Amino acid sequence: MILTIRVLFSLLLLLTSRSYADDGYRLWLKYDLIKDAAKRDAYARSAQFIAVTGNSPTLKAAADELQVGLQGLLGKAVPVLTNAGNRTGGIILSVGNGPVAGAQLRTQEGYQITSRSNNIVVSSKSDAGVLYGAFALLRQLQTLQPINALSLTSDPKVRYRMLNHWDNPNGTIERGYAGETLWKWYELPERISPRYRDYARANASLGINGTVVNNVNASARFLTAEYLGKVAALANVFRPYGIRVYVSIYFPAPKVIGGLKTADPLDPEVRKWWADKTKEIYKLIPDFGGFLVKANSEGEPGPQDYNRTHADGANMLAEALKPYDGIVLWRSFVYKADPKADRFKAALEEFGHLDGTFDKKVIVQVKNGPIDFQPREPFSPLFGKMPKTPLAIEFQLTQEYLGFATHLVYEAPIFKECLDSDTYAKGQGAPSSGATVAKVVDGSVDGYPITAMAGVANTGSDRNWTGHPMAQANWYAFGRLTWDHTLSSEAIAREWIAMTLTKEPQAITRIADMMLKSREIYVNYNTPMGLSRPWTGVHFAPEPWQNKSPRPDWTAVYYHRADSVGLGFDRTEKGSNALAQYNPEVQKQWNNPETCPLPYLLWFHHVPWTKKLSTGRTLWDELCTRFYTGADSVGWMQQQWAQVKGSVDPETYAEVAGRLETQHKEAIWWRDAWVLYLQEYARKPIPAPFKKPERTLDEVKQLVDVYLLR
Amino acid sequence: MILTIRVLFSLLLLLTSRSYADDGYRLWLKYDLIKDAAKRDAYARSAQFIAVTGNSPTLKAAADELQVGLQGLLGKAVPVLTNAGNRTGGIILSVGNGPVAGAQLRTQEGYQITSRSNNIVVSSKSDAGVLYGAFALLRQLQTLQPINALSLTSDPKVRYRMLNHWDNPNGTIERGYAGETLWKWYELPERISPRYRDYARANASLGINGTVVNNVNASARFLTAEYLGKVAALANVFRPYGIRVYVSIYFPAPKVIGGLKTADPLDPEVRKWWADKTKEIYKLIPDFGGFLVKANSEGEPGPQDYNRTHADGANMLAEALKPYDGIVLWRSFVYKADPKADRFKAALEEFGHLDGTFDKKVIVQVKNGPIDFQPREPFSPLFGKMPKTPLAIEFQLTQEYLGFATHLVYEAPIFKECLDSDTYAKGQGAPSSGATVAKVVDGSVDGYPITAMAGVANTGSDRNWTGHPMAQANWYAFGRLTWDHTLSSEAIAREWIAMTLTKEPQAITRIADMMLKSREIYVNYNTPMGLSRPWTGVHFAPEPWQNKSPRPDWTAVYYHRADSVGLGFDRTEKGSNALAQYNPEVQKQWNNPETCPLPYLLWFHHVPWTKKLSTGRTLWDELCTRFYTGADSVGWMQQQWAQVKGSVDPETYAEVAGRLETQHKEAIWWRDAWVLYLQEYARKPIPAPFKKPERTLDEVKQLVDVYLLR
């Protein structure tokens, strides 16, 4: 009888999972029955119960997740007990500082998973750490790793691990390509979408512990009582999952909603307004995270409107937060509309001299590169130059410059390339100084008291969260790296694939290969060798010819500087001398055009078309080679994907295949736009074996113009 | 053994349907197992097979839908045969003009469902008609009606039954409150979302046969080859479901994308451009439906820019469409920014004298009321005054002025109230002339050769399509009324509830009661007795005090005309004399303030605050009574809903309950805004038993201001 029911149940699960196409909603938290019965049984022997003492919402969330996960993966109900007693063969969730709870843990949020007395013990100093451990344990099963002799100790390397949502109150998302905002402002606080909890689960599974709910181009609405009530309702859902909410502030809020005559950060009434507002917030949201600020940037107001500095503004907010456990994240993304200036240098010019003047509750949040989330940028010079100021790194997950939701670009290599860059902040070293961007950010170089990483979210209301099914991997990778930036791009990719797409080893390898190459492929057809920013107004289509704009630094020609001699932005001392913002060892890598690595060449040098490069090709020929092979490589990705057809869900397969087809078309579009445009300066033929584009530059422009129509 | 498998299968279905919360995606096309086994068996005896001769995509869609539907409803697989042979006890789908196919049908799209020789025969003159019949048959089962002796004959009363999507190329929807556009323009044409087909199924199930894919404030993108390719990909998905695509055009397209110097509709080059463009479209989309046009309206360009008439513009497009089976829908929604004028009169003033001058391929599309989709409007005077011009009626399903996606307003009573209004287009009659708006629109009054109804869609990318789960009923009701405007609001509501929410008779009655009263409740707290348009810029919050705007007719005071004497817009001959636009019998109903029905009173009269009304109360007291009882009635709706908790899906229950809570809060907000504002003119106390609002007018305004912040 028992057997019959078990068979029935398995059949049920199999049929159920088959009758529903996978719409991607579950992300990597898929708990489908493990196919290998032996493996299932082995896991089941070690997971006969879940024991948890205490019933905080976070511990309950951990136990619930394990129970649901094990039920799905093993096809059997696992009881949750309040005490293991003498029982063995189960999972014990344990909080505290005792021996079981892992004396080796460095942080409150770290966790250990160990085998003790025939039980698996998940322990931490905090409830949140236990939750992270529970997800880590589930990940072991989802990736088919053994769990019978686990000995894992894991601490997060960074304290504030955050998503930034550039979401507007009207429901749109600035640079969002996966639908509207997840936050239904007109329904909140009365209606709580079940999706909010699933969002929190997904983040907690990665260790993300903060969410800035609104756009950095902020609406003052979010500081009104009306909207704070809505934010508080979200905070209530997120809290059990260890996630704190933050809001982006509109700097002149004291004027706009406070009725004051000024927003001068040194004005006592303004300071009082912020202190009162902060008090109001903490009454509603006792674990409120703090403020994110974009000020005096791209038209947003800020302290400079009152002849005050960024530090004056940030420190005023820090003062308001003083009674509470909250922080200020002040963005360094600033630049002036000066045609003579090099935008590359703006952030350090404005922030460098402020080092040491920020309150200890302030983190300066720095985009990974000096410009703006380009497909490849050198790391921001700030990371080597602000020893007295905690610096957060800001990555962009949403694919503003990476083909929206139709191009497959796995971003972990972008993040890693920056994180692993050596800033030489502490001088020389061999073969490297060890002062990587990652180690600046995690505080190990300068001993920052607080540390943070932020990712501009790629989530939206699309059923699968991220539009492109493969873009889920970027959310995943960012989250995993906020916890541990030493993980490799490949390891993260393989883990994500196994949890999300397929458990077949060959297919995993093939998909991982495609993902790992995807960024370089994109760079090749889009902006090879250090080109940047040739985008249309909406950042969708190629427009290297664009030379008109309200601001000179919002044209394409400002960046690539193509002329009859050559191509690229001279940032050596003969040019803007932006290179001087880096430490000497870094300068040495990049300031000689003969030895500068080709991926960075045009970031720093204006190179003649006929110049022979290390590849043996002239600049022109090398550029063409990259544009053509880049576009062709999308065809290769299509072939790779076709080969995993039998190994992934059919709906997901079709969706990715369709998007790859679009990507291929658009890659050729980018290639044609660039080579036809640059050819007007280079005056060289397309080198063999490549064939010249089938269309004219005018035809390419006409197609681009379509996307510029209102 | 057979029994065992059947038991297993039933259990499987039961468990499956239980393990998934209902997220609303399936709309009313829910084919969950019928709980009553006897009923199931009875149905099963009459549905042992589906026989269909011919394999057109539309017939295949009909057979597929029946097969999937029966499988779900009956829990048994039903085979599809190409020929019934001598078999009985099945369903036969039949196209043709033979005796079985129903000689009584008046139209190509009509269907018959009859019992013949122990089979159920679904017949029509067209494949699409068979599809409509298949959905009608499924509806019988979904609403638990007997099917063993069916004799249904059904013809659509209107030929073009259309949804208008005000969707923009950037993904937003003008006046959309259910997420982003359904059409993924950046993915099309390569990737075809499975959702497109489900959209088509839902529409086909109602008889909707046309979709205008883009906003009437149109982007010229939709006439470029790039976007026509995308539209064609949608058309390919919709075609098997009998749905034709239409596009909204940007009138100056010949200039903007054609490179011409003018868009003058009488210019030969312009006419040639449109003819060529139309040819290009029909090459891609052989069953293209035609063009929808908003011209010389709210800043949109049009023929008047060249001193031509609307007829000149429309007839030019009709000429371009001449070789094809396509039509022009030209909107009459026009009004000038003239503070002296009455916007009410604008449409007839501009279009009345053009009656008889439009090409026979042109339909003039008229909003139901003279202003703009207000919660209650009198019918547009055009419906009684354009005998020589086919008039389409345009309703708005999306709740622009009906509380967005948080207020429960069942719109069928709005549609019916207008459709059943007597225009007296043919003069007197007793008790009515019979020339209702519906009969004008369906052509029976004036013998229009082509007829149409259009609904501005309330669909979006939200999982449940319409944001508010109950708003699905508005899509449903509109669709059913396009097919048959004689259906009652109640019959439609009961049908929809049974298909969508619950089959329990008591719960159906309770929910239907709530739905049927919801519109009057909304009117009462929002704009009672003929008030209109006191909305903020985004049409969300109350703003009766609003008196500044770029246009005088975009202020609130323009509409309500509150002063120390009284309230309301005098449209009698002492005032704007808009009433003179109606036929004399209609004028008689409304032009005397003593006898004008209260729901229309302030539409036509400026009434003193102290005026005693037919209810025995003064105007002021009557207004207060309606505002207060309206807001209180939302509390009643909450109670009604609470009582059906056990009868509907828990997730749906919670979602509606949350939204009702918001609605209650906002209803009180509207009430307070109005009574506090009007009180400044009326200078009367709030009559007992009502208590004066707990907040001041300034406090109400401050809350409104929050929603006006960027």
From TrEMBL, chains A, B:
Domain Glycosyl hydrolase family 67 catalytic, chain residue ranges per copy: 141-465
Catalytic activity: Hydrolysis of (1->2)-alpha-D-(4-O-methyl)glucuronosyl links in the main chain of hardwood xylans
Alphabetical list of Gene3D superfamilies matching this protein: Alpha-glucuronidase, C-terminal domain, Chitobiase/beta-hexosaminidase domain 2-like, Glycosidases
Protein keywords: Carbohydrate metabolism, Glycosidase, Hydrolase, Polysaccharide degradation, Xylan degradation
Any Pfam family the entry gives: Glyco_hydro_67M
EC identifiers of the protein: 3.2.1.131
Domain Glycosyl hydrolase family 67 C-terminal span(s) in chain numbering: 466-688
EC class: hydrolase
Family note: Belongs to the glycosyl hydrolase 67 family.
Binding partners and assembly: Homodimer.
Name of this protein: Xylan alpha-1,2-glucuronidase
Source organism of this protein record: Spirosoma liriopis
